[in-house]
Amino acid sequence: MANLGKPGVVSTTPDAPATIDPNRPSAARIYDAFLGGTHNFAADRAVAARAVELLPEIPLIVRANRAFLRRAVRYATDHGICQFLDLGSGIPAEGNVHEVARSTTPDARVVYVDIDPTAVLYGRHVLGDDPHAAVVHGDLQQPGVLLDEPEVRDLLDLSRPIAVLMIAVLHFVPDSPALDSAMVAYREAVVPGSHLAISHVTAEARPELVDSVTDLYNRTGTPLVPRAHRQVTRFFDGWRLAAPGLVPVPEWRPAAGDLRLPEAIASVSLAGVGVK
Ligand SMILES: C[S@@+](CC[C@H](N)C(=O)[O-])C[C@H]1O[C@@H](n2cnc3c(N)ncnc32)[C@H](O)[C@@H]1O
């Protein structure tokens, strides 16, 4: 396991796709800290700790998001989908997409994509020589580059339905023509029957809970872009939103045993699955 307590170990690893700067907080490592992971540095833990002071339920919100990820993957496998493109996949944590998918679909194939070198490095470590899963270092706003990566071409058959996952990532991507055209490109790249799963932070219902955390992220170099319900809905243009639509994360097809959150806390992130 990569030891992020010793920055030199990581930055000299030949597989590292880019330099890891332990002094600059990263969204991936802050999220890992919320989950109680060990792939984070003091700078990440400081932001995570301050965020939890501002909104003590953040670790629960993050766990509810991971539960949505599991449900979205199972929803896809229930519909016969056995290929996944996980954009903004993060640092591996309990219940990674390939693990959840293979619990019912042993031949599931997964390509993970992340812009953060720590996520890519540890992701590759976790996968080892898994022939049916890979981690690609890249920006989801560059679908042309990503879909042409050898790992994507080898593992994903775009003539059959796939699930594109954008779980807790788009709120780190500001509005731009590049983002708009990327959303169109992913939709056009996949065949009917494919899924698009999104979860996303929103400040619309309870700005008093979200605004201070947004300010914190923005001040620490990891811009956070909460969006209103109608803005997140736009990401599903051209997809049919499966029931129950775009709803607070814990309310999207809750499963037995999943965490329940107070309504106000649940309202700070939205989740939905679109079907092409
Ligand atoms: C909060 S984590 C979510 C991880 C995982 N999807 C989950 O829900 O548990 C967000 C991830 O998105 C990644 N990310 C942010 N912007 C990205 C981009 N433009 N392209 C690819 N990944 C991105 C970050 O590096 C981080 O690992």
UniProtKB/TrEMBL annotation:
Gene Ontology biological process: methylation
Record carries keyword Endoplasmic reticulum: no
Protein name, as recorded: SAM-dependent methyltransferase
GO terms for MF: methyltransferase activity
Gene3D superfamilies hit by this protein: Vaccinia Virus protein VP39 (3.40.50.150)
Domain of life: Bacteria
Organism phylogeny: Bacteria, Bacillati, Actinomycetota, Actinomycetes, Micromonosporales
Source species of the chain: Actinoplanes aureus
Keyword Cytoplasm in annotation: no
Keywords in alphabetical order: Methyltransferase, Transferase
Region of interest called Disordered, as start-end residue ranges on this chain: 1-23
InterPro entries: SAM-dependent_MTases_sf, SAM_dep_MeTrfase_SAV2177_type
Any matching Pfam family: Methyltransf_19
